[in-house]
């Protein structure tokens, strides 16, 4: 574990686990964002990634995190509580939060003229569709020097321990692709592939400079969280509450496949979180 | 390779490949169907499994294959042509084909009073839904001593080479779960899990005597065929021709995941066909 991770864990004060922080440090180091950078983070949520970036850009850097979610969203602590806590941390002065979507933010007086980096840190799968990204990618042209997108990849690269997480992602995206029935409590609203992101960014005028795929640290909890959610009784009940019979039967088969993929790993399996694909554009 | 397989291949005269015949022999030997048995096969299609069973039941046995599909269905040779060819083979007198669904068949004069075994040989996923199986399972009570169901299982048991086939099955079932839009050219209309089959048979009054899961022989071609189909341009075009935008985007993500899962196996990968789950009821 690097000194950075220990330091960030101390500042985070229990807000994130060590493996989660490690995963984020791995992520942002791949982009090689220089000290002193001004970053705009789109879809910052509770600010877990915001904190890591604020640490890595150093004293002269700044991270502006925006998210349209209500401040009372989230459990066990709300978005507002989590953001307030980070603002009060040792590096809180490097962070600004705005409750806004990007278009509202860029139009408002809160908008600064130019950022070095605009970052989506695993926030694109929370968009209702790939198409919803398009106006944002267009609006960012001329407002940031670089665009960075990190998102899970569906390529488990032969790692069978990541199969339950892959199928859990497919299951959540299935539910949220039933017409007009998004459940915003799902972390995964739609699966947007690297291929799709490459297409959309190109159409919006961005030039891809670099891409990488990084494996998730063994202890990263997301796989366990997502799989646990999808195998819960409440999730199954919800799935059976909406849509036609064949839709529901299909969803049941997915849930069953997730159970089997977990069972095939043996008792108390260590689930691997999906790898992350990273792109950097200018 | 057993003598049985060589013998059946000779009788089949190019109708099926050696690995396909091997897979079917493995399947039916698991059920231990005695010589002289009278078998009713539901969803016999071109008769590939019919032939193998007719061979295994010996001279005193008989297999009645029923299928509601039109006789001109199928390519490169049609259902009718394939069935005719088998009827003219060395063991053709052990085989009877009827173009009928089960209910029509049992009501007709063609129905014999009692079978030793009623067999679904990987034909349940071709039903439009699990519920469509129910009347058939009920109708078979009292008409057959035993019920045998063999179907693919979604549990790839840690074999990453079977992941493309699993995802191809999920993709086809996805398309056919879009309301009122079955494409009967897909071999997989719906994924009916062992758990679901256990429930449905129990409700219909059947008692499960035995179940097994068998791996597919390495050379079995189904994985390659199914994956090839799903990655064809025509399949993608069809997927984009129907249903809402989010549905189509979801389907695109599945296709992309299939491509990746295949690529992750290296150049010219050997795709593994899904394992088969077998149940025997009385």
Walkthrough of the structure:
2 copies of one chain form a homodimer. Chain A is an alpha/beta fold and 282 residues long. Chain A has one domain (3-159, 186-219, 272-281): 3-Layer(aba) Sandwich (Rossmann fold). Helix content of chain A is 40%, strand content 16%. Chain A is built from 11 helices and 7 strands. Chain A has helices spanning 3-12, 18-31, 48-56, 79-87, 102-107, 134-140, 163-176, 194-203, 222-230, 233-239, 245-263; strands spanning 38-42, 62-67, 95-99, 115-121, 144-152, 208-214, 276-281. A 7-stranded mixed beta sheet of chain A has the order 3-2-1-4-5-7-6, sandwiched between helices. In chain A, α4 (79-87) links the parallel β2 and β3 (95-99). In chain A, α2 packs across α3. The longest helix of chain A is centred in the last third of the chain and has 19 residues, at 245-263. The first copy, chain A, is globular and about 55 Å long. The mean pLDDT of chain A is 92. Chain A binds chain B through residues 128-131, 153-158, 160, 163, 166, 170, 173-174, 176-179, 190-193, 195-196, 244-247, 249-250, 252-254, 256-257, 260-261, 263-265, and chain B through 128-131, 153-158, 160, 163, 166, 170, 173-174, 176-177, 179, 190-193, 195-196, 244-247, 249-250, 252-254, 256-257, 260-261, 263-265. Chains A, B: Residues 35-104 form the Methyltransferase domain. Chains A, B: This is Methyltransferase domain-containing protein. Chains A, B: InterPro entries: Methyltranfer_dom, SAM-dependent_MTases_sf.
